[in-house]
# Entry
Amino acid sequence: MKNWKFGASAKEFERLKEYANQFELLEIYLEQGLKKGQDPIELIAAQITATRKKPYSVHLRYKPFLDEHKDGVDAAIYDLSVLCMSGLAADWGIELFVAHTSYPKNRYELYNQIIRLGEAAHKYKVVIAIENLCDRENLTKGYMLPRNPREIAKILEELGNPYLGLCLDTGHAISNSELTDSLDWDNDVVRKWIKHVHYNDNIPEKDLHLPISEDASRELIANFKYLTQNSKHKGVVIFEHRKLEEAVMGKNYVQTAEYQNIIPGGIK
Ligand SMILES: [Zn+2]
# Structure
């Protein structure tokens, strides 16, 4: 649902609806449409109206309001507080949120952000899935982003908060050239904490969110089998792309015989 702008024209609404109808579940991105001073509830409500579907999950804003939060309140906490306090979970029944951490400068800050997200998730009885991020040098220099799914799972295991989870973004792991390395399938800790999946392709050191296609690496597709067998996230995956068309491409491709044959047993 990326690139959707709040206050979109009727034509854009129609287009959104047309694409939304092709998917069983939707994740709504907040950061593209939410502008300073706008009510996030209104934004979500407008998208629900347009698609006639309640979002399965809401992706919180990923760009920190660094300039707006010199007091040290990080963006993820800010967004979550605004959203939850505004009643998104209560009024709309949304139970799953995806969060990026802000830009922690050290491990203490990273832990602290995740702990606070967990406290808020507990308070509002929602699950917050912390996403493994793309480690592009120009973006992440000097910051300790949570990039490795296994590391995030380890932190989540240490914290033991059932309202937290891992959002595995396959493309980000590929960008870091560590999809397989970071997914230790024999490690129950990783398996236990995956509660959401963003399924997209990528190339090293870029973050293009490419569609799943015949060009996708076998490593990526083979890993998908594992993901769909993981009970914690119910086999749900989100095709997360820059264009709506790319999500449709991915969805169509995974239904082809070629794709199904790569993965014995198919997908759920
Ligand atoms: Zn993602």
User: Anything to note?
Assistant: The longest strand covers residues 164-169.
